[in-house]
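#random but structural
TW: two for the price of one
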Amino acid sequence: MAGAVSTLNAGNHAAVGAGRYQRNAATREQPWVRWTLLGLGLGFFGLFLVLPLVAVFTEALRKGFEVYLAALLEPDAVSAIQLTLIAAAVSVPLNVVFGVAAAWAITKHDFRGKQLLITLIDLPFSVSPVVAGLIYVLIFGAQGWFGPWLQAHDLKIIFAVPGIVLATVFVTFPFVARELIPLMQAQGRDEEEAATVLGASGFKTFWHVTLPNIKWGLLYGVILCNARAFGEFGAVSVVSGHIRGQTNTLPLHVEILYNEYQFAAAFAVASLLALLALVTLGIKQFIEWQATRSTKESS
């Protein structure tokens, strides 16, 4: 009897081992396939990501650090940097408020028009930035719907800072909301409902329950929103008027310098945008690491 049981156990172990081997074999590629895929991935990464970054910084520093620094401290460049910072400083907080409010409404409440709101949030992803800029020209331009009224009251939006801010807000407002909506949907409503039952107000529920749960997703959305605000070209180009020293952001200033064959200065200013991209990538990785660490500690 014991021999039969031993034989049966041995057969079961053999069957389990054979099944595990078959599953591993089915999911294991040949070495040449793995190396080919790895080579293609690294080649694509090097050709389309690393090489352009190296080229930007190489061309920026080709004539020496003094020329590089002079290009960044030139008055038009300083004005472009300041305007870019202003556009980002206004658009990012506005999008944070809108994104949090929209995500809260969509995920925590049921109401008519929810699907329409979600569609409107995705609108800047489906509309060309150039078209968005033309829409603002149509509305606020001299020949636009509100153009005569704005001229009568000596208000200027198009070819001025307000138009640049509006265009930047439009192209960047989906980022925070789109990061928070899936996260808050996955978390559900149980904790907020429990806090409400215990007598917490809406603000206290948000501040002490919802915000701690979404803080990493919110920071990630802010980083993406800020990066897009710094690098936006199409919509801002349409509404800016390309007035040097007044309505040129960093991307527009790079275009003007390059068209004027000031290549060293153009690449010097472009290196600031490239550096911003690298910093954004680093912060993104840090946020993802912190989010993963927090998840592991709480589980």
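TW: number two ↓
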Amino acid sequence: MSQAERDKWNAKYRDRGAATTEPSRFLVSLDGVLPRAGRALDVGGGSGRHAIWLARRGLDVTIADVSAEGLRIAAASAAAAGVSVATVEVDLDEPAAFPAGPWDLVVDFHYLNRTLFAAFERELAPGGLLAFCQPTVRNLQRHPRPGAAYLLEEGEAAGLVPGLEIVSLEEGWSDEDRHEARLLARRP
């Protein structure tokens, strides 16, 4: 990731802080199947809304993100919530920099880097879960952002996880008015 992109994300978090502290409704809907112990990685987790929710459930959570400002907010929010999360400032565009597992759960919400899916599969523990949510190109029918480079093609999500068992996969308009692919997959 370029320094300009890193600066953009740091400025975004400095200017607006945590846009929301509530976890995604999709993630919350998985409550009954997600682990309550073990190690979890929040990929591109920014200000920590998902990581804090997972830590409250008993997981040992690490947030990996490029933004030092986002991670600062996440650490402060976690402390205020009475939980602990680890933060790793990392450029996830560099596949070799992916945090080493094994992870019992990897969550990736609204961060698209197709090259990371090999790392997800490699670093998940046997039986570990991947929860992934990303807008699709149909989202452009209602919203100009994110741009096409950051959107999945319709039906693409299943092909991103060839070595994982798909537990659930759906595409459609979310309650948050985004057209998304929502995937839960397990490493055999």
